[in-house]
Write a structure and sequence with these properties.
mainly alpha; three-stranded antiparallel sheet; 7 helices
Length: about 140
């Protein structure tokens, strides 16, 4: 049986507040929330996620590592690629915490409309072929 980070083992049960805090910190980033939302729709490799969210692959990998360490996602190696998906035991917690934003279809989710359009128009066979991303303009705050 796989020990999920959502099942408190003896070691984790010593301080459940720290345990929960560590899990929530991983969600405290807009890019990681977008990744989670996208992974709730399907399973993707890093190159697909980078293309869909218009983020460079190393940044996607770092965000995925934090989500994986916190137990929000699983990774599965297939050939030379690693595919990611939302951890099944995390789904009820995500639904409860993120409410309507999580449950809305991708194309109706605020902040995800452009991602949904890229997902609809992508060619899955071309997703993992190397091609440079164009630099994005930085948003001014």
């Amino acid at each position: 049986m796989v020990d999920s980070v959502f099942n408190l083992s003896e070691e984790r049960a010593l301080d459940p507040v720290v345990f929960l805090s560590d899990r929530l910190k991983a969600l405290a980033d807009p890019t990681r929330l977008r990744l989670l939302k996208l992974l709730s729709v399907d399973t993707f490799c890093v190159c697909e996620l980078g293309e869909l969210l218009e983020i460079h692959q190393p940044a996607v990998s770092q965000h995925l590592q934090k989500l994986r360490q916190a137990g929000w996602i699983y990774a599965q190696k297939r050939g030379q690629w690693v595919y990611y998906r939302v951890a099944a035991e995390a789904l009820p917690l995500l639904r409860n915490m993120l409410g309507a934003w999580w449950q809305a279809p991708l194309e109706e989710t605020p902040g995800m409309e452009a991602v949904a359009e890229r997902l609809r128009s992508r060619d899955p066979l071309q997703a993992c072929s190397p091609k440079p991303l164009q630099p994005r303009e930085r948003r001014r705050r």
